[in-house]
Amino acid sequence: MTTAETNREIHRRIDAVWRLEAARIIAGLARLVRDVGLAEELAQDALVAALEQWPESGVPDNPGAWLMAVGKRRAVDRIRRDQRLERKLEEIGHRMETGPESGADGADVEAVLDDPIEDDILRLVFTACHPVLPTPARVALTLRMLGGLTTDEIARAFLVPEPTVAQRVVRAKRTLAEAGVPFEVPEGEERAARLASVLEVIYLIFNEGYAATAGDALVRTDLCREALRLGRVLAGLAPKEAEVHGLVALMEIQASRSRARTGPSGEPVPLLDQNRALWDRLHIRRGFAALLRAEKLGGPPGPYVLQAAIAASHAQAADAEETDWARIAALYEILAQRAPSPVVELNRAVAVGMARGPAEALGIVDALAGEPSLKRYHLLPSVRGDLLFKLGRFGEARTEFERAAALTRNAPERALLLERAEASGRAAESRPRSGRGV
Amino acid sequence: MQFLMMTTDTGSETTAPDEKLHAEMGAFIEEMSKAGVLLATGGLDPRAVHITSSGGKVTVTDGPYTEAKEVVVGFALIETRTEEEAIELSKRFWSIVGDGAGTIQRVFGPEDVPGA
Asked: Where is each RNA polymerase sigma factor 70 region 4 type domain found (chain A) (predicted)?
């Protein structure tokens, strides 16, 4: 019984070590074998060795170094054995004799791995998020290689069957190998494009956790934290990239609201109705610091910096009435130019409505009427209904609220929209006064 | 999960504790930042002011002081996925710092609120 307990404890420790070390080990091995898929397999082999040996021998003093050493040994064995990889061994030997990493005995593979590993982790991020891979594969690889998550954990977090995730990972590794994707951080123009792909993956992971409407809520909160952690790690690896700090700032500030976002029965509470006392000041402060870092780097602000600046404006307002809507509308205008999208337009309309009145905002919303991507998006009629109500066009407002209610899948939200529809109906009957504008 | 890690004064060192604390914290911050888990950190002045509220009366005193070895001299708030990870990171901190003592305590968050 006690043995079983200790065994379980050791397994939990191995799990923790693995999550903390996976990225470093895979990245270090990838530099050696120049193949992230193979590197990941070798790292998994090392993990299996730990699971076999540590319960007997105890966890070593430096578990990360132990795993890395086993991984390296497996790598060398594998390279020697595998005909297909023989060429790689030659390449490595050659690189070590002639390349900048030389200085050590040419046959000494160890030397490669004694260099700082940070660059390798950055290479790993860029490779896992390579555009040759479909987005779900990038997400799965990133969580697996950089977060040390198991396929089972990824599957549960994304509400897909485990074999699907496993297959995604296998196929992604094969795609990377077949495409001959180099293990490197791209330079020049390609760097910006590839960095955008990395940031997109991290933010997607964050949103998957943040916008959770189904599944195990706890698992999904973990997903937010994982994305934040990845963002912070990336900010440390690429400190001169303003957009990385922008994304971290955005995620920190959004995460600061997590306690205020849902009501007692789990219903979503809109930003302006949230109890701001529940916002986590520590996360807000960290978000502001990251935003400041981004702004200090200069240059025209990118989409994440702009979104973070908008989030920061909300965070700065002591209560909803104090919101600096003029500033937020201005930020949305820049965002709409730099990263145009119907959702950004709709948000801009809301900000313009608050800053300059519902009439101007209605013009922006009406321009979105034929937008196919917003066809089933309940917020479009919901926002339009709100603007019409403020303009005193109660009958039309009612129709819009009803349409929005029919589109939402969230029951408490539907109830709220139907309530507003009813209120609009009552207002329409008791005859139009002039609009209750802002 | 958030954990508050605290280092306590072991009472052994009498020379320039501030400088030593500085170096320790520097190494720690680097390690934790690389892992992306550090939320906040700081050093604490061992001279504490004690405040007691009793029967509607608030009393502020400079003493009596806690035993030197129980005084918290530094803290770090970290965010990890499991308690094991926090302990693992703490072990690394101590492997950098050397001798010393401290505590790790879970900080309850929104996910720990009953009924949430």
From this structure: 126-176
Distance CA A235, CA A250 (A): 13
Tell me which fold the domain B2-112 belongs to: Alpha-Beta Plaits (3.30.70)
Give per-residue pLDDT as tens, A26-70: 999 999 888 999 999 999 999 999 999 999 998 898 899 999 999
B79: nearest CA partner in chain A:
A225
Residues in B touching A225 (Cβ below 8 Å): 79, 81
Decide if A20 and B85 are in contact by the 8 Å CB cutoff.
yes
ipTM of the complex: 0.85
User: How buried is residue A104: exposed, middle or buried, by Cβ count under 10 Å (0-12/13-18/19+)?
Assistant: middle
DSSP label at B8?
E
Alpha-carbon distance A388 to B7, whole Å? Answer: 59
Residue B58 pairs in a beta bridge with B53
Is some CB atom of chain B closer than 8 A to the CB atom of A226? yes
Q: In this complex, is the C-beta atom of A284 within 8 Å of any C-beta atom belonging to chain B?
A: no
Residue to test with chain B: of A14, A20, A265, most B Cβ within 10 A: A20
Q: Is the pLDDT of residue A360 over 90?
A: yes
Query: Using CA atoms, how far apart are residues A287 and A248, in angstroms rounded to an integer?
Result: 7
Give dist(CA A401, CA A172) in Å, integer: 44
Q: Does residue B14 have a pLDDT over 60? A: no
From chain B, pick out residues whose CB is under 8 angstroms from the CB of A17: 88
pLDDT of residue A140: 96
- Which strand (E) or helix (H) includes residue A103? none
pTM: 0.87
Mapped onto helix, strand or coil, the DSSP state of residue B103 is strand
Positive or negative: CA dihedral A363, A366, A367, A373: positive
